[in-house]
From TrEMBL:
Domain DUF4397: 37-154
Protein name according to UniProt: DUF4397 domain-containing protein
Signal peptide: 1-21
Source taxonomy: Bacteria, Pseudomonadati, Pseudomonadota, Betaproteobacteria, Burkholderiales
Keywords tagged on the record: Signal
């Protein structure tokens, strides 16, 4: 549960953040005084355009979403909340789920993901407990690849020998996140990194990205997806990595390029 903080702490933090150029919005989320926010990520390669539904209705700007689409955060009410996605223009759910106790200050992510026999859904409740003075990036992994059901993910500087380091996020099981839903995101300093995925417990990469920049205060969800195509989705380890950025930028997810030969 998010810690209860006094209004005196809020006023003091706001003054410091203003002086340092920090985000007052992030501070308000950390203090649990903002409305809960939710957004949707379409992570089904080759999937149809869909509408995102909250309690049976599509919020503004949450319709006709194609693969790689990431919707802006929108405010929702607290309490029990049903979420789903449906073919655009309909309300017949392709997959649905439930957040039993939506709370102020939290961020919620809903992911359309390819299932074993039918479309699936991924749910993340992020309590957003970022330090009031922190400028670190927030990062979380999600596994939407039934053909890579348990992976380790390394977010490391280029040239790092992963045999000498532990995974940044380990044991990311199919249809699950690390850190798990209900836990705060992982924090990394801004900088230049590569992303490397391996089968859990292995040091042999099945995916290795080119270098990318992770900005301070970024809010990233790194999602594995199977490579598009029926055959590829059945072959072990045939995956891509998507980066979905949180916030209200309207930026589609980025599909990182696998630099491994033959992948």
């Amino acid at each position: 549960m998010k810690l209860i903080r006094t209004m005196v702490a809020l006023a003091g933090a706001a003054a410091v953040l203003t002086a340092c150029g920090g985000s007052g919005s992030d501070a308000a989320k950390t203090l649990g005084i903002t409305d809960p926010e939710i957004h949707f990520v379409h992570a089904i390669p080759g999937g149809p355009a869909v509408d995102f539904l909250v309690n049976g209705k599509a919020p503004g700007g949450q319709t006709d979403i194609n693969y790689l689409g990431v919707t802006n955060f929108t405010n929702i009410g607290t309490g029990n909340t049903t979420v789903a996605y449906a073919d655009t223009g309909t309300t017949t759910a392709l997959a649905s789920g439930n957040f039993s106790d939506v709370a102020n200050g939290h961020e919620y992510t809903v992911i359309a993901l390819p299932g074993l026999t039918s479309p699936g859904i991924g749910l993340i409740d992020d309590p957003f407990d970022k330090g009031l003075l922190s400028s670190d990036a927030r990062v979380r992994a999600f596994n939407a690849s039934a053909n890579a059901t348990n992976i380790d993910l390394y977010i490391v500087p280029a040239g790092t020998n992963i045999n000498t380091v532990s995974p940044t996020m380990s044991g990311v099981q199919f249809s699950n996140a690390v850190p798990a839903t209900g836990q705060d995101s992982l924090y990394l300093s801004g900088g230049t990194y590569v992303a490397i995925a391996t089968a859990a417990g292995s040091k042999t990469p099945i995916f290795q990205s080119a270098g990318f920049s992770l900005a301070n205060n970024a809010d990233w969800l790194v999602t594995t997806v199977p490579i598009a195509g029926a055959l590829s989705q059945l072959l072990p380890g045939q995956i891509h990595l998507l980066v979905a950025q949180g916030g209200n930028t309207g930026t589609p997810a980025i599909e990182l390029t696998n630099t491994l030969t033959g992948q």
